[in-house]
Structure formats: C-alpha cells, structure tokens
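Person: Please work through this fold.
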Amino acid sequence: MLTKASELNAYDVALENFDTAADALGLDHDTREMIKYPERVLTVSVPVLMDDGHIRRFEAYRVQHSSVRGPAKGGIRYHPQVTLDEVKALATWMTWKCAVVNIPFGGAKGGVTCDPKHMSQHELERLTRRYTSGILPLIGPEQDIPAPDVYTNPQTMAWIMDTYSMTKGYAIPGVVTGKPISLGGSLGRNEATGRGVFYTVQSACEHLHLPLKGAKVVVQGFGNAGSIAAQLLYEAGAKVIAVSDSRACILNRNGLNIPELMHMKALTGHVEGFPESEPIAPADLLALECDILVPAALENTIHAENANSVRAKIVAEAANGPLTPAADRILERKNIFVIPDILCNAGGVTVSYFEWVQDEQHLFWEAQDVYDRLEKVMKNAFRDVLKIHVDKKVSMRIAANMLGISRVAEAVQIRGIYP
C-alpha cells in the first residue's frame, strides 16, 4: 500500500536519509551515535493575550541538533501543522546544510503551532515575545541564532532581537538574522534563498548541457524563495509557465510575466486570477512537462503516489524535504536530476552567516558583495556535491548528505567527547 504524504513523518525521513548517507560513507557506530540525534529539545507553553481579551495557549519548540561546528542556526516557523518531529527533522537538515556550504554553524529549528493568517499583528507580536522568553536560555549570538521561516519575517526577527536585548540591557543584533536593515540586517538577505536556488539551477543546467534561455520552468509555492527564483530565472531568459501558492495554481504555456505576477502577489497576497493565465489543479501542476520544476512549498509534496507523474529534467528543491525517499527513488529511475534541498536552498543560511559576520564585526557590505560571495559559496558547494555524485555513483541527495555528514563527523572526531 502506498504511503500518503500526510502520513509521512518528516523526522523518520531525515533519519532514513542520514542512515543511507552514513552507510555510503562507512561511518562507524560511535560517530553515528554522536551526530545523528538532537543535542537539545525544548518544548514551551506559550500563553498569549488575544485581542478579544481571552488567553490562548500555543505549543512551541526549539531544537538544537548540533553545535559541533559552531553556533546552532535555523529558522522559526509559524504554521498550524508544526509538530515536534517536523522541527527535529528541519534542525537535522540544517546541520548538514550548513556543513555542505561549509559555514561554521550547526543546525537548529523552531516552530509555533498556530495559524498566523487568523491572528492580528498585535497578537503575533505578543506570541513572538512570549515565545522568545520561553527559548531565552537556548538562544544567543554565540549559541543559537534564529531566522525567518514559514510565515515569519524581518518584523518577527525584530521582535525577537528586541526581547532578547531588553533582557540583557543593550542591543544585540547578532542574536537573529533576517532582520530589517535598520537593525543590522544584511543587504541581499531577503532574496538569498531564491538567489541560491538560481545559482544551483545554473550549475545544473551547465552540467546537463541544458540551455537556461528558453527553458520551461514550473514553480510550486510562489512565496519568498519560489518567487525570487522565478524572477531570476525569468530574467535569465527562462519561460516560467506555471506557479502556485496556497490559494491557486495558474498556467500560461507561453510564459507568465513574473514581474507583473510578483506585483499582483504583493498587492493581493495571492496569484489567483492573474491575467492571461488559466487555473489548473495542484496535481496537474506537478505533472506538467517542463525542464525545471522548483518545489518551493512544504515537506513531502512529491511522494510515492505522484512522483511517477513528474516530467521535469531538473527538480530544484527550494523547500525543505519536498521529496520523500520513495519519490527520490522513482525520480532517480526516471533519470531526473535532483538538486537536493540541503544544497539548493542553502542560500538563505549562507547570507544569514554573512549577516551574522557583519553584525559581529559592526561592518556592513554592499549588496553586490553579498551576491558575489553567495554565488561563489553556492557554486563551490554544487561542484563538491557533484564530484561525489560522479565519483561514487550515488544520487545527488546521497552525495550532499555524504558531504555534510562527513564534515560534521570529522569535527566531532577531532573534538572528541567531554567529559
């Protein structure tokens, strides 16, 4: 019986991916025991005074998977389907992601089980400040550095930075990344994830001898990462024929005007009803014949039941964990080139690292400096993963996991165990 995507446990997927790569590396039992599981897991109860005068309690989490190579690093998401296992999975992936792009961070993740679409700005602020107070013992610029994720943004980070700073008695901008520029944020951070996706897609097209100009692109999830990736691909001459968001899927086989679509999304909050487009079903969007498919929504959107319908040449994982292990195997049999999430969407954490460095140095860079440094990091990481893929004859996902895990394993072996 096929497993439904909704029944898949993201943390089980993360552990399965780890075991596959660890087996390929021949990693010994002792090292596995030290790097496989989270170092710290915190569950906090978050009571919030709602606008109607009543108190509502929310469940929230912060997971530090690894601090072996440096401070733990990872976003905070607000979503009604947030679970502890999802947060543990995302923290695990963050560890390997930071190691793949070779920045000195470990992995962490946070989440609050809530529906921000049905909360006011004041309620979100009270929720954020109370959650920050709950995770205060774990976070800090040398300890654990949160960032935006699903349904959180620079304003959320500003509230966290302010709450943390007020408890310390002075401003500490380095406690979070993805902040507003006026509070020590970095130029280029907002578009960093989508830009990183673009650089890895460029590299994949070069490897496969697939011209980017004229390539047909489908983007599932027209949020921050998906829209920026679509814009950069559009500017490079690709033809973005279909996109989706949480409300609608739209298609124009002659290509969508992405700047106009981004303008409409900014005004209305959705892509539904965009001129010169037709609506299509979510399942049909994933099955469109295209050169590049960019899943930029949530986990497990391509799974055993729908992977056979995918007709792309490249799948670029802008989201975290959009393919299940079963889908991975199906796409590999179909000879579809997958750019795995811990490589493809690592642009966000890379520029978060740049932001943290700038905050710690109190010296800020121009936007082009950020873009140039990001392109170098992403394309170097792609070449490192591709080399393992070719030399070891393993999938790109296994190759990326092998690279990330081997770097963390080396660090823990050199550091040893204390006491």
Q: What stands out?
A: The longest strand covers residues 40-49.
